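Q: What structure does this chain adopt?
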Amino acid sequence: MREMGIIMRREFMERIRTRAFLYGTALFPLFMGAIIILPRMGDNSGERADRRIAILDETGTAAGPALMQVLATLSRDEDYPYNYIPERVEGPYAERRAELMRRVLDEELDGYVVIPANVVTTDTILYRARNIANRTLLRDVGQAASAAVQAERLARSGIAPNELVDLLARVHVDEAEITQRGEEGRGAATTFWFAYMAAFLVYFMVAFYGVTVMRSVLEEKMNRISEVMVSSVRSIDLMLGKILGVSGAALLQVGLWGLLGLIATGGGAYLPRLLGLPSEILASFVVPFGQVVLLLSFFLLGFLMFASIYAALGAAMTTEQEAQSMTMLVLVPLFVPLLFIGPITNEPGGALATALSLIPFCAPIAMPMRLATAPVPNAEIALSLALLALGVLVVAWVGGRVYRIGILSTGTKPGWRELAKWLREA
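A:
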């Protein structure tokens, strides 16, 4: 244990003292902040944009004024990105078309809408503009036109619009999760996204930092001083020391990023404003302390599990080019729970979800999904954590034995039979 602590401390200190660690810790939050803030600054600095739309109504009914009223209603919302300025145009479209096109090209108008006389039967209006890729504007024009035409249909049928609205009013479902503490206000959509975020965090850490562990092992293999280390330290102590040291540096960097993010957003108070989200959405992500501890446990053990796999991969390969070709295969087990995120969240107590949460390679993602969706029996949680911890030790043991022989066998890429021979002889 003493030797493992020395190796772990050496690996940890060696990485946090590098310029790459310091620059990465400082620059990554700035980069993420720029991604969030700069697009919002470039969007007219938060100012509302005027949109001048001409409305030509060939029906001779109230459809045109109704469409203009819907657009004006959207503009009353001060938080809406557009301030619509509708303009009614008289006359047949065939006679006014050239004029409207000229006004659009001269930027007097952003676009124009034509409501044909037969719109009630054809369900089609015309929209012409300089920019037809603006999905928000297209959606608003379509919704306004639909409301106007529906109002005209109701007028022709003799049904009062307010009566139909009352008849077709949607029924809203008040969602709440039942736990030992009572009813929880977190809804289905929030639960799904929380599970997805927990899974993504594990995947990001493994994909981003796992290769660092592999490179550390490869560097030791190419450094002849490491031959002295394997002669005086047990293989599992050597491998666990390297895994824990490199992983500790990675987790410290991520923790510093999180701390800097909280400071920059005032403890999260300004985060909804930066992201442009209602504060109620982020408030619904409040998680009980006990569940936070479990999620962190699966996250840490999961990261150590795949860090161990990467370390074993580095121990078996002779060059970084050979190891890089195998890195995607290491991530395959993490893809499996993501492929079944629907069945897991829909049936968290089902056979598929239970099996995936007990397989050490899938548990770091599958079990957090189950925990975020519904209560999980304590026995299954304990068994999953135990199997995951055992998996870390087994993979580190295998990697250490391969490393002990492989460090003396440079220049030749071992096959499966050769690896099995190394395990027997180490």
